[in-house]
Design goal:
This protein is an alpha/beta fold. The protein has helices at 57-65, 78-89, 107-113, 165-175, 195-203, 226-236, 251-261, 277-286, 303-307, 313-326, 340-348, 358-361, 388-394, 400-408, 427-445, 450-456, 464-469, and strands at 2-3, 17-19, 46-48, 69-72, 100-101, 121-126, 129-135, 159-160, 179-183, 189-194, 217-220, 240-244, 269-274, 290-293, 330-334, 353-356, 371-372, 378-383, 415-419, 458-461. Helix content is 34%, strand content 18%. The chain has an 8-stranded parallel β-barrel, surrounded by 6 helices. α1 (57-65) runs parallel beside α2 and α11 packs across α15. The longest helix is centred in the last third of the chain and has 19 residues, at 427-445. The relative contact order is 0.17.
Length: 477
């Protein structure tokens, strides 16, 4: 990345800059390769942050199927992490995991489970074979104690296990149905597919390991027996290990990294968070392959207001990415992205991937329960990993005195309602939006890859009015 004019003497956020179009031979967004070169095996440069309100098994499965990576939080017990990793790696690369109901289950049970998946349907099975499909629409204005066999759609289109995405789409389109179960040669249910998912399977390449299973990452903190937990995560089969703490440029992080590196892991090791070139170099020298960049830009984070500590994110990524490249390593931009443009600018600044947290919290795939406000708008609650809620969970085994003492000085990381966008309620909808924006940014820059975007991007500095000028009007003048 270079500046259109001289770089300003002050640090910059994503809102402070714009990208200037360049001569381009990239004629189509579909000609852009978004795969990363940081060793994670991701085919799109998106990483789901290790937040308990965001990263769970459904998120990990869905994002990996589209080429991204999900980091399981460090607060999850090891047996649960191992179970989730095994579950995710057993998922199909094309078909989504279905919600299964038995014919005698009630409409109330169906309505409680259907929002767990963006495909918004459940398959009614009898002896392992699908006998019907039930959707939220089928359950509307129906007694909640009615059985699903009385409201399900019995006339189904089923897909064979070896169906390719294009033929599956054509079959669903010809039958004018939105969703269909997939079955094996014995007629047993193995998955579910929508027309949109069939299209996505032709646009995205799943992030898979050497055995062809979906990839997943997990985090470990810098306290306690870091080596033991990291070793257990590696034994569980994680594809990337993230050593995470709010202030990454500290001796405990260096010690934790050395302990992890002593295990000789065969997967990339990520560490953070930092915002300076010096911090980047220190963590890489201690054993990090990738450094997480960002202190304070997250939507749930009050660090800058509470402490005055942090750095505008674009400048932090620029500085740290340059230091990492000098050492042959990489950085992830963590936090501060609210629009697809921000992701494109982070990649242009040199990040190999961009971490997303709260933006993905308001989706069907995030772990929280779907709730409705007084106006009937669906939302989920997002909270930071240093919030009172997260800290209470993390310190649940400590004495009441120690927990109360820590509560006096809690940083107060916020929690918030994250409303589901009615046009983009699923994480795949948001991935579509982000990748479309990044691909277009690449064509404007004349870049066919993420690396070329970094090399060719030219940015200028704008005023607040300049940023406002680029925002579309939701209504008329």
């Amino acid at each position: 990345m270079r500046f259109l004019d001289a770089a300003p003497p002050h640090d910059l956020t994503y809102d402070d800059v714009f990208m200037v179009p360049q001569a381009s031979s990239v004629s189509s967004r579909y000609d852009v390769d978004l795969s990363t070169g940081d060793g994670t095996g991701a085919t799109i440069p998106l990483v789901v942050s290790n937040m308990t309100a965001v990263a769970g098994r459904r998120m990990a499965e869905t994002v990996a199927r589209r080429g991204g990576l999900t980091v399981l939080p460090q607060d999850i017990p090891l047996p649960v992490v191992a179970e989730v990793v095994e579950w995710v790696k057993a998922r199909h690369l094309v078909f989504d995991t279905p919600i299964e109901l038995h014919p005698h289950q009630t409409v109330a049970e169906a309505l409680s489970l259907i929002p767990k998946r963006a495909h918004r349907a459940a398959v009614v099975v009898d002896a392992g074979r699908p006998v019907g499909v039930v959707t939220a629409e089928d359950c509307a204005e129906v007694d909640r104690f009615a059985q699903v066999r009385d409201v399900m759609t019995r006339t189904m289109v089923t897909l064979p296990a070896d169906a390719d995405a294009r033929s599956a789409f054509d079959r669903l389109d010809a039958a004018r149905v939105r969703v269909a179960p997939a079955v094996d040669e014995h007629g047993r249910l193995i998955g579910i597919l929508t027309r949109t998912a069939a299209l996505r399977a032709t646009l995205y390449t799943p992030a898979v390991d050497g055995q062809g299973a979906l990839r997943i990452a997990a985090a470990v903190g810098v306290g306690g027996d870091v080596a033991a937990r990291a070793g257990a995560l590696l034994d569980a089969g994680v594809d990337c290990l993230v050593v995470d703490t709010a202030h990454g440029h500290q001796e405990r992080m260096v010690e934790a990294l050395r302990a992890v590196r002593a295990l000789d892991p065969e997967v990339p090791v990520v560490a953070g968070n930092i915002v300076s070139a010096g911090g980047t170099r220190d963590l890489i020298e201690a054993g990090a392959d990738i450094v997480k960049v960002g202190v304070g830009p997250g939507a749930m984070c009050t660090t800058r207001m509470m402490t005055g500590v942090g750095r505008p994110q674009l400048s932090a990524v620029l500085d740290c990415a340059a230091a990492a490249r000098d050492l042959g390593k990489h950085v992830w931009a963590d936090g501060g992205v609210r629009h697809p443009r921000d992701v494109a600018l982070a990649l242009a600044a040199g990040a190999s991937s961009v971490m997303i947290g709260s933006w993905f919290a308001g989706t069907y795939e995030s772990p929280g329960d779907l709730m409705e406000d007084a106006d009937g708008r669906p939302f989920k609650v997002s909270f930071g990993m240093a919030s009172a809620r997260a800290v209470a969970h993390r310190t649940s085994t400590e004495s009441a005195y120690d927990r109360a003492r820590k509560g006096l000085y809690e940083e107060g990381i916020s929690s918030s309602r994250m409303y589901l966008d009615p046009l983009r309620p699923g994480v795949e909808d948001l991935i579509d939006e982000i990748c479309a924006g990044v691909r277009s940014a690449c064509t404007y820059a004349g870049a066919a890859t993420v690396e070329e975007l970094h090399q060719r991007a030219v940015v200028g500095v704008q005023s607040a009015a300049g940023f406002h000028e680029g925002r579309p009007l939701p209504t008329g003048w």
